[in-house]
Amino acid sequence: MYEVDSNTASLAASSASPSVRRVARAFNTPSWWYDIRGMFLVTFAYNSTIWKQVSFFEGNLSESHLEVPIGNGSVLDMCLKYRRLRKRPTPGVIAIDVSSAMIESATKAFRKRENVTVQYGDVGKLDFSDGQFQTVNIANGFHCFPDPGLALDEISRVLAPGGVATANVLLNPRGLAPLRWFANRINGWAMRKGILISPFDADQARTLFTEHGFEIIGDEVRGNTLYLTVKKPAA
Fold this sequence. Notes:
Blueprint (H helix, E strand, L loop, with lengths): L5 H9 L3 H9 L4 H14 L5 H8 L7 E3 L6 H12 L7 E5 L2 H10 L6 E5 L12 E6 L9 H11 E12 L6 H17 L8 H10 L3 E8 L2 E7 L4
Parallel strand pairs: 1-2, 1-4, 2-3, 4-5
Antiparallel strand pairs: 5-7, 6-7
Helix pairs in contact: 1-6, 4-5
C-alpha cells in the first residue's frame, strides 16, 4: 500500500516521549546514507552480513506480520525478494517506525507492494489490537529501543498466543582485541549520534526476553550478534 503521510508521522513523533523523539531525529537522514551507515554497522559493529540477516528474518513472515522498526525498508525488501525466489507464500506486513524520513523512504520502496503497509508506530505504545499478529521481526532495531522491556511487553501484547518473534541483538564486542577496540569505537560513535542506545551481553538479552514472558526457541551467537527466535506461550 502506497500512502506517504510524513506530516502525520512528524506530528505523532512530536507528541512522543523525549527519548523516542531523540531516536526519531537520529534517523531522519537520507535513505542512501542510512544504507551506507547500516552496512558499516552490520559489518564492523554486528560483525555480521546482510545475507545472514535476510536468511534469518525471511523465515519469520506470515499473513499477519509486524516489522519494527522498518528503517528505509531495505532489509524487508530483500527478504520479500528472497521469499519470492523460494516460491514461498506472500506475507501480509504492517511496518512501523518513529522517523518520518524512514517512513517516507520505506513507503516509496513498497509503493508497488499491496501486501505491505508502512505507518508511524512507537514500539513502546503500539496502536494495535491484542493478539493481532502471528509474527514479529525486530531487524537491526532492538539496540535503539529507549525502553527494551516496555517494547517487549507491547510486542507480546500484540502477538497472538503461540506467535513467534525474531530479533538480532547487538552484543558488546567479542573476539580479538583490535576488532573489539574498533567495534567499541563504532558503538561509541553510534551512541553519540543517538542511533544506538546500548549493546547487550548475551545472557542479559536472553533474560530480558524470558522475563517479559517469551520462550526462547532459537538462539545463535554470530560475531557480535545474538540471533533470537522467541515464542509467546499458547493461552
